[in-house]
Amino acid sequence: MTSRERFLAACACTPLDRPPLWVMRQAGRYLPEYRALKAKSSFLEMVRTPALATEVTLQPLRRFPGIDAAILFSDILVIPEALGQSYKFRDNGGIAMEYRLDTRAQIDALAPAAAVPDRLAYVAETLALLKKELAGQKMLLGFGGSPWTLATYMVEGGSSEDFERIKQLFYTDRATFDALLEKITTALIAYFQMQIRAGADAIQIFDSWGGIIAGPDYGAASLKWIRTIIEALPKNFPVILYAKGTSPQLTDQAFTGARVVSVDWTCDIAVVRRILPGNVAVQGNLDPVLLNTTPAIVRHETTRLLDSMRGAHGHIFNLGHGIMPHAKLECMQALIDTVTGWH
Ligand code: CP3
């Protein structure tokens, strides 16, 4: 069975001897070969150059052949950028947008959503290169941010501590909030359709800031836009939904049409598996910080998680969030060996 077949089987909740495995590197600069490339080109240059983005995407798979999926090297913030709001990294960590959305006029002045696939054509090129390199053996994951999570960056003007501005907009001017979210949603639909045409086997939607809005408002602020996106994609196409800090809303997430609900490390994934409908797969959820400890601890915690899911169908092994910059290579190896050797 190829990695890709294993992954697709897990998405379809087919019984397997062990779950497929992948990790998101996002905040992690743990690979020396990534840091070496980054010394020569900036992050944005690498994202925008298909040959470089392809190389960076493949780096973890070359070092760790046991990983079952490749995730496109890009960023969720390419969507605000394509709409006319560029971004950069702050020296002391976090994101700074070029400006913040303050007025309705600024929202109306954003580029039309229809322009997005053209502006992000390099992503389609990268996916096509990856598709060829992976030759159907490994799963190829495309991704994007949720409309809500992208709106937080656009309205806050970057990373935020209290998310006051986006919440102010949500509670005081719902019409303007909806206009912005609708624009981002339309852009994401075109973007994901492009990724699927270019060869993505699944799409992961990152609702990284889903957990900062009041529980009863999560539907109107975030989930309804995600549902609209999934409805616009090909029927039954594997969409993985990851919404950090939203355990009370996992059941609602399972009814968006997503085939996989990805959970952070704060929930007991075996309990989540029992609660969610049997035709929706679950992904997760080792605490990423464990990869900064020791191989023995990683082996122990990974085995504990796997044992808790014994006999359950529809599990994709993953971290509860992205790998951290200080993750140790030997801990990553211990994770992979434990999952692939588990029986
Ligand atoms: O695993 C991968 O490399 C896949 C590519 C990927 C990146 N970002 C590359 C990246 C993915 C899937 C993302 C998603 C992303 N980007 C999210 C959603 C996931 C999550 O963390 O919840 C978010 C919120 C972003 C926005 C973003 N980009 C942040 C908050 C940061 C960290 C900024 C900082 O320095 O504090 C980034 C930078 C980023 N994106 C890096 C990578 C590899 C690190 C850049 C570097 O090399 O310094």
Strand and helix map with partners:
Elements: H1 3-11, H2 32-40, H3 43-48, H4 50-63, E1 69-71, H5 78-82, E2 87-89, E3 95-97, H6 104-108, H7 116-119, H8 121-134, E4 139-145, H9 147-156, H10 164-172, H11 174-198, E5 202-207, H12 218-232, E6 239-243, H13 250-254, E7 260-262, H14 269-275, E8 281-286, H15 295-308, E9 315-319, H16 329-341
Bound molecules: coproporphyrinogen III (CP3).
Written description of the protein model:
With 343 residues, the chain is α/β, with parallel strands linked by helices. It has a single domain (3-341), classed as TIM Barrel. Helix content is 48%, strand content 12%. It contains 16 helices and 9 strands. The protein has helices at 3-11, 32-40, 43-48, 50-63, 78-82, 104-108, 116-119, 121-134, 147-156, 164-172, 174-198, 218-232, 250-254, 269-275, 295-308, 329-341; strands at residues 69-71, 87-89, 95-97, 139-145, 202-207, 239-243, 260-262, 281-286, 315-319. Strands 1-4-5-6-7-8-9 form a 7-stranded parallel β-sheet. Strands 2-3 form a two-stranded antiparallel ribbon. 45% of the residues are buried. The structure holds coproporphyrinogen III (CP3). Residues 24-27, 29, 38, 43, 71, 73-77, 89, 93-95, 143, 206, 208, 322 line the site of coproporphyrinogen III.
Written as H for each helix and E for each strand, in order along the chain, the element string is HHHHEHEEHHHEHHHEHEHEHEHEH
Overall 3D form: globular
How far apart are the first and last residues' alpha carbons, in Å? 16 Å
Q: Based on DSSP secondary structure assignment, what is the total number of beta strands?
A: 9
* Largest sheet composition: 7 strands, parallel
* Spatial strand arrangement across the major sheet: 1-4-5-6-7-8-9
The name of the CATH topology is TIM Barrel
Look at the structure and give the CATH class. Alpha Beta
The average pLDDT is 97
Using the 3D structure, state the CATH architecture. Alpha-Beta Barrel
- What bound compounds does this protein have? coproporphyrinogen III
Percentage of residues assigned to helices:
40-55%
Low-confidence stretches: none
Task: Count up the helices.
Answer: 16
- Output the radius of gyration: 19 Å
Strand content: 5-15%
Q: Structural class of the secondary elements?
A: alpha/beta
Overall tally of structural domains: 1
